[in-house]
Amino acid sequence: MKPIQSALLTIIFGIAALCIGSNATAATPQQELAAASTIEAVKQRGVLKVGMDIFQPWAMKDKTGKLIGFEIDVATRLAEDMGVKVEFVPTAWSGIIPALLTGKFDVIIGGMGITAQRALQVNFSNPYDYSGMGIVAHKTLAAGFDSLESFNRPDVQIAVKLGTSAAAAAKKFIPKATLRQFDTEPQAYQELRNGKVHAVVGSAPRPAFEAVEYADSLFLPIKGTFTQEPIGFALRKGDPDSLAFFNSWITIVSMEGWLKERHDYWFAGKAWAGMVE
After folding, report:
1. For the whole model, what pTM was predicted?
2. Phi and psi torsions of 261, nearest 5°
3. What is the CA radius of gyration of the chain?
């Protein structure tokens, strides 16, 4: 064999040997996806970090300052089933998706409605609950108002929480009204009780609860909700392993009846009211 041919064969066999060695140690695509998933990171860390904000009765503080509510139950059960602890990361709603994307927490479990606009930024799990927007009004300022059209005037002021589905619904269904946006939900409702706005648009069942608790000054101009929206976990895109796990978990606890039992406790009545400040 000529010297040049011998050298070429040596190079080819060397490259082949390197490829074989590399393939022998490389992870499969499935292993790489699993290793990069949020679920694996949570298991290794031993803590599930959950982004949320205060929405009664989704998440709120009791008289001792402890977080309670539907979403708190959901996230706590999820962490227990994963064999890890749960850590809640209260975050202003207007910045909660950017905080998720920058890794401040692992998942949003905060009554987040699944919308097309949000789905462009995050992946949503299958729905684990359904909600909708209601409206509660001031008896003096909104006397005689009995439809959304009644509020659809520039001289009518509507309070909402900034960055929420309630704000989007108010803009869509009563676009001529003057929208006043607040950082927190309690601020919006307090403005209504003070007689500074005609109504509040918010996620059910809070508007109905307000109408009952402050019956002397507030009322429901329309019954029920005027929108319907599915609620899902929000997680960062590109993580099919975590998305599959969350969907499986939601299916399991739904079939158990556990999700309905917790939903009914927090939304069908106010047996929990004595625990809240």
Report:
1. 0.78
2. -60, -45
3. 25
